[in-house]
Amino acid sequence: MTTEKNHTYKIELDNREVTPPQRNERWEKLRTIIISGLLSVFLIAVIFITLPLTILTWEGLMVYASIVALVIFLFILLFRYFAILFFAYFYITKYTVESQSNYSPFISIIIPAYNEGINLKASVESLLKLNYSNYELIIVNDGSKDNTREVGEALVGMRNGNTSKVKVSLINKPNGGKAKALNAGIQYSEAEFVVCMDGDSVLTPNTLKTAVSHFQDPNVGAVAGNVKIANRNKWLTDLQALEYVEGLNLARSAQGHLRMVNIIPGPIGMFRKEALKDVGFYASDTFAEDADLTLKILAVGWKVNYEPNAQALTEAPIKLHQLLKQRYRWTRGILQAIRKHKKHLLNPTLNFNNTIVLWGMLYEALIWPAMNIFANIFFIAVALLNGMSSLIFYWWISIALLDFMSAVYCIAVEKEEFRLVPWALVYRMVFVLVIDITKAMATVEEFLGFEMEWGHLERSGIANKK
User: Fold this and answer.
1) 31, 113, 142, 189, 204 from 110: Cα distances, Å
2) Helix, strand, coil % (nearest 5) of the chain?
3) Listing from the earlier edge strand, what are the strands of the sheet with 303-314?
4) pLDDT tens profile 201-242
5) Whole-prediction pTM
6) Which of 20, 173, 302, 355 has a CA positioned 20 to 30 A from the CA of residue 139?
7) Which of 411-414's residues contact partners 24+ apart within 8 Å by CB, and which partners?
8) Which carries the bigger pLDDT value, residue 2 or residue 31?
9) Are 123 and 201 a contacting pair, CB within 8 Å?
10) Is residue 290 part of a domain?
């Protein structure tokens, strides 16, 4: 009897394992696979059948492949452009459209100076004229070899009529790099908020007032400012001025909409000191201490905003080799920062926002330059080899027009000089291509572990004549 029951139970269990609903589910999965396979075969067959027989040659296939690649490339380009434009357009915060509040906490402005004797006095004099009363200036002489120390000592105790309460202090220390210089100033400061800038930068009058208003939100750990090129009226610096407006500040506006700015620029950044303490201040183990610090602040949960009205005028390289050296260092520094934070790159459960930021940085620093270089070489080669050289012009003009429209929008939003717009016609196909080649070379050398030096831009003091 027991055996029969067991036998009966076993039969019922077997029947349950092969019930019609499970057979139907398996059949549905199999049918889906079959249909997908047939559709794939059908689509491939349609593509090849509809191709003219003349295309089914090596040259024809190359032309066909180039058209497909061109469409994919332009689709990615357009998606990237319009995604940035979309988010940037909606980045109009209450801090920008509403009148500024009376929120005016004490702020320390840290000025790291290494061989900045030619710029330092004019920078400090401009900082004494800011439209804000509750702040101080801390100059950190990082072992300069020029007359920076003497200029700094003469500035200590300097006063301005409308800002008589502003104190100027000087710290002299052995040379250790910008990160250590900034850390020295931050630790010396007793303010709740600090502004970190470059020794050659000039801040516009309302910078402190507009930037500090963001910190009324206790979740904001830092605010990135808007960097402008001061030494213009030369073809290379005009192109950089357009790049800062269209290529950098537009992207930063889009990131600001998401409150996930990925790099607080060196010339102008305001920080909550509590956030700096949380992440251990600046580090000197990368060539992009600004990017590294921003990623650390985002990683521990602070928000990073962007304030377009907090502006800094800075001196841009006036010679091509200086510009390429600067971008070479930026690229290697950003890659070093990404590698330093790779655990967030690979594990989104640690901090999903930081993972998105890191992948975006990796795309801009590594993937996009390679795509741009390959697209230029591939399309031009295919066009020339297949007697379609006229298409190169149409391809170039279509991208130039896209940049032209983007430049008009950015110039109008930031109330910039309209004379920069015509540079958009050569911006993408010449200037950006040269920069991307430099980025590619920097990427290769970074992965190969080539040594590099920090370098220092030769200053002319042009930024302080603006």
Assistant:
1) 68, 10, 12, 9, 16
2) 60, 10, 25
3) 168-173, 135-142, 107-113, 193-196, 269-272, 220-229, 303-314, 202-203
4) 889 998 999 899 899 889 999 999 999 998 888 999 999 999
5) 0.77
6) 302
7) 411/245, 414/226, 414/245, 414/249, 414/308
8) 31
9) yes
10) yes
Residue 39 lies in a domain: no
Is the dihedral angle over the CA atoms 315, 321, 326, 330 positive or is it negative?
positive
Closest among 205, 211, 316, 315 to 264, alpha carbons compared? 211
CATH of the domain at 262: 3.90.550
Return the exposure string of 163-200: e unless at least 16 CB atoms fall within 10 Å of the residue's CB, then b: beebebbbbeeeeebbbbbbbbbbeebebebbbbbbbb
Stretch (H or E) spanning 171: strand 168-173
pLDDT confidence tier of residue 271, bands split at 50, 70 and 90: very high
Q: Mean of the per-residue pLDDT values for the chain?
A: 78
Maximum Cα–Cα distance across the chain: 109
**DSSP state letter for 432:** I
**Bridge partners of 194?**
108, 271
Cβ–Cβ under 8 Å, residues 109 and 201: no
Helix axes 368-385, 433-448, angle to 10 degrees: 120
Tokens of 459: 């200053």
Query: Which tokens belong to 100?
Result: 């500024």
DSSP string computed for 273-293: HHHHHHTTS--SSSS-HHHHH
Q: Is the dihedral of CA 403, 366, 456, 112 positive or negative?
A: positive
DSSP states along 204-216: -TTHHHHHHGGGG
Contacts of 159 (CB under 8 A, 6+ apart): 128, 166
CA distances 266 to 7, 102, 127, 235, Å, are: 79, 27, 16, 24
Sign of CA dihedral 429, 430, 435, 436: positive
DSSP string, 205-255: TTHHHHHHGGGGSTTEEEEEEEEEE-S-SSHHHHHHHHIIIIIIIHHHHHH
Contact 228, 311 (CB under 8 A): yes
Q: Could you give the number of structural domains in the chain? A: 1
Pair 304, 222: CB distance under 8 Å: yes
Structure tokens at 336: 């070093």
Q: Is 428 helix (H, G, I), strand (E, B) or coil?
A: helix
Residue 122 in domain: no
Is 258 within a domain? Answer: yes
- State residue 132 phi and psi, 5-degree precision: -165, 140
Mean pLDDT along residues 157-164:
56
Of the chain, the end-to-end C-alpha distance in Å amounts to 104
pLDDT of residue 466: 46
Joined together, the tokens standing for residue 104 give 């005016």
Q: In terms of residue numbers, what domain contains 277?
A: 65-99+200-466
At a CB cut-off of 8 Å and minimum separation 6, what does 439 contact? Answer: 327, 328, 331, 365, 369
